[in-house]
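Hi R.,

Here's the chain you asked about this morning:
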Amino acid sequence: MNKIVQIIGPTGVGKSRLAVFLSEKFNGEIISADSVQIYKGFDIGSSKISESEKRGVPHHMIDILDADEHFSVNKFLELTVDIVKDMNTRGKLPVVCGGTALYLRAMIRGIFEENMDKRISREQLIKIEEEKGLDYLWGRLYGIDKEYAEKIGPADKQRIIRGLEIYYNNRITPSNISSITTSPFKDHEFIRIGLKLQRQLMYERINKRVDEMVGEGLLEEVEELLKIHESSCSPMMSIGYKEMSMVLRNEIGQNAAVNLIKQHSRNFAKRQMTWFRSEKDITWFEPHESSEILTFLKQKINESN
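And here is the predicted structure, written out as tokens:
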């Protein structure tokens, strides 16, 4: 059975470095599972890996879209199926790296075919949010699907609206979707490696990384992107880009924006870990345990063979 490795963990924990290391050892190529790195030009704020950091290892699903193009988990699966098939043909090990939990989970559990006869549209839900606030919609979702609402948190507008859209149009909760889905990778074996850090150390690393982004020119990157893209486009609403957009609109100062980016990144990392811990098939390591991870992966591959 062909294998797929997933490198999982919160933002800033060192997933990309590990993915390159394992790809070098196991003749692998990397598939990015990051919902911002797919967009061209969104480099600093998404911590997009540099050419030197890739060390010659091919990377897929990076810089494939313009910011105004729509992307979905369905499209992610459609594209990655073809990429993995090609890797299998060439004898390469697919190493999936990223923190977008929805993409990682969909590869294993698949997605369901939605009812196209909509009872309520996404546009209607967005209008309700504008009129009554995001807390109101999150409260509705909490009453419908407490488990899912707690996982995504009350600030994740995109997933709150998506969760309600799923429920009202299909009469199934987001938490129960997996019971009626099939993965396009059902003939593959997944080996899931998680990276974790003690919470305070993780937060310190996140704060340092935000400072580095600012030093590398995050504000200037956002300024250039806003010359060609709307501030409402999907990647511009992500952490780092949204706050720096506020600076350029003179809504807040740069120091306040940096503090917000750090806070929002820490909150996001916490939500990621809450989500990932609910996945029982992940084997967890700390980032410095590269030799232990290497031994673990060798054993898993040998067991399969």
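One quick note: The CA atoms of residues 26 and 298 lie 9 Å apart.

Cheers,
M.
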